[in-house]
What we know:
InterPro entries: SAM-dependent_MTases_sf
Oligomer: single chain
Distance between the termini: 39 Å
Structural class: alpha/beta
Protein name: Class I SAM-dependent methyltransferase
CATH class of the largest domain: Alpha Beta
Radius of gyration: 18 Å
Order of helices and strands: HHEHEHEEHEEEEEHEEEEE
Amino acid sequence: MLYRSAVQHPEAEVAFLERVYMHYFEGEQPTLLREDFAGTCAISSAWVMMDEDNRALAIEIDYPTAVWADKFISHEIQERSEDVIILVDDVMNVNEPEVEIVASMNFSTLIYHSKLELIAYFKHVRKCLLDNGIFVMDVFGGAGSKQVGVQERAMVVPGEQDLKIKYQWEQRSYDARNQRIDCRIHFERENGERLVDAFCYDWRLWSLADLQAMMIEAGFDDSEVWCDVYNTEIGQSDGYYKPADVYPDRQDWIAYVVGVKRG
């Protein structure tokens, strides 16, 4: 629950996924979603709650995490949890069912460090899409993404008694030779008790251009980057993502790279 409260915004993300799909396939309403590296399965849960016709497949390789997610969403969305299928497996092993949207969020695709691995994953994803389908992944970058340090903010975990927690994002090390970054998430309670290295990540920071090129090599018909607009006067993003020809040029940014498969 700490992770979900700290870094996930599932309702906004599924609305975005639907909007992206309908941008490329006007007039078509997507109903089938596959969530790779699903973790808490928050995206899948929010997806089925968005429309009564929606169904989701969530794939998570870690068994304890999948068990937690299954129990949580069964309580959270009750009978609609029957419309979320959770599989404990490597995403590369799951070929069916074909869906309209495959989503890899929370920078999960960055676990692939080589082009061979990443292109193989993109090819697999494309095979899992229906003739009119999209793959959506998020990525972060900017000068700040390569700097060692810790950022923190206060957060509240909803529940019977709202729990106040300090969330810490640590970029522990960065290797410019291979673009690999070691990131950690820590939590601290009001009483000073700390949960150190709650989540650890060994990622490669791919460029937007490289990701697009690899999607095309993998067989996607098109690939676009969706970016937000940063307002320098107020010092924050407008939060609205759309296709962009000019990519972000600021200290820190998050973008989405979309692969499009047309029938």
